[in-house]
Amino acid sequence: MDKFLKFYIAGQWVDPIEPRSAAVINPATEEPTAFISMGTQADVDRAVKAAQQAFPSYSQTSTEEKIAFFERVLPILQRRHQEIASLISREMGCPITFANEAQVASCELHTETVIDILRTYQFEEQVGTTRITKEPIGVVGLITPWNWPLNQVVCKVLYALAAGCTIVLKPSEIAPLDATIFAEILEEAGLPAGVFNLVNGDGPTVGEAISRHPGIDMVSFTGSTRAGILVAKAAADTVKRVTQELGGKSANIIFDDADLDFTIRSGVRALFGNSGQTCDAPTRMLIARHQYEQAVEIAADEARKHTVGDPSDPKTMLGPVANRVQFEKIQRLISGGVAAGARAVAGGPGRPEGLERGFYIKPTIFADVSPDMEIASEEIFGPVLVMIPYDSEDQAVEIANATEYGLAGYVSSGNIERARRVARRLRAGSIFVNCPDFDVRAPFGGYKRSGNGREAGAYGLTEYLEVKSIVGHG
Predict the structure, then answer these.
(1) How far apart are CA 408 and CA 374, in angstroms?
(2) Catalytic: which of 245, 379, 455, 463?
(3) Which stretches of the chain score pLDDT less than 50?
(4) Beta bridge partners of residue 284, listed in sequence order
(5) What is the model's pLDDT at position 2?
(6) Does the pTM of the predicted model rise above 0.85?
(7) How far apart are CA 189 and CA 184, in angstroms?
(8) For the chain, which domains are there?
(9) What is the DSSP letter of 324?
(10) pLDDT on residue 474
(11) Residue 1: predicted pLDDT
């Protein structure tokens, strides 16, 4: 049996109702690395029915039982760490070292965090004469992206399970293989049949069916803003809850009292991680005008240190981007930036030298960028940094906020009070001050066209709960 051609429904590995397969392409070779089945409305109906049947029982699972389940999941996930990292590297081009140290490691951290949150989370409280309870919303449809494929699956699935919901998951058809392994992990850990269901397929078919399905009470979607709008429209007729984590064009404001060399290099590395395919990446670097040329030189030097190559090589820092559509979009935007008058001080159009096959992009730094250029407003989703000068704190904030997105922002200053003051002025859901490590307990999500709702931490759990008031004395 080829496990990737099966769906996981009602605790069984089953064939699709209509046999139809698609290749998962290795972006480093442009050749198939596996094949998956592509689901239909009928497969979604079957999965929703299984989730509905499992909900009455699973929704009553005690917190202690959930903690015990997640404590069984964690060592299985750790045991299969290398296998999952290898799959992620093959399916979306992530360098194997980054897959091990970031992509899979983050999933283990999220699992530990869910366990920790459940130990203290209050599902009931008394307020005056009213008992307020937080109850699972019901059957949830989860639609996940290809850039952090298992991380986003784990962020959604584990928090939904912690809330007591049952699940229908559609991973991205571009990077779906790790989700199959995760289904095996949940099965081995003893999750009851029907609580978690996996149907592969594309957005216009399976994603649309999940969004519209009257048997699904909530949809959580991560992906592009364009696709998020379609999900919300499809979900509107059934008035289901929709949470979305969408695109970003995050500003990185560096003040002149920051350590310029350290902060510039940190910003470049943060952007180039995962080949720039991270929705909250610091893609717009804002520099005080009197330091601008010095900053450009530092950024260009750091970019040249990022070698591009075979993602299976542990020494590789940048692999290919995940698919041909993304490759062609990035190349178009880089060429457009040059045509608009931006100065490519590192990288530029075309593949890196010696890499004639695979979806490889030159790590690119653009100087002389004005905020009205397409490369300064469009989410590129690749290893491309734009550098913009500013003349005052107010202008830096104005430039940072002058975007339809609001997922993240970055501020660096030698004066922590100044950094925090500016952080409060930025219209974005996550602000990173002075190059911190990522906090898996911090709620993650956006303002404006970057979406709504939050993932991770206690807020991520709350998204999957309904609030009920039980009013009256005993």
Answers:
(1) 19
(2) 245
(3) 1
(4) 251, 386
(5) 75
(6) yes
(7) 9
(8) 3-246+450-471 (3.40.605.10), 251-439 (3.40.309.10)
(9) H
(10) 59
(11) 45
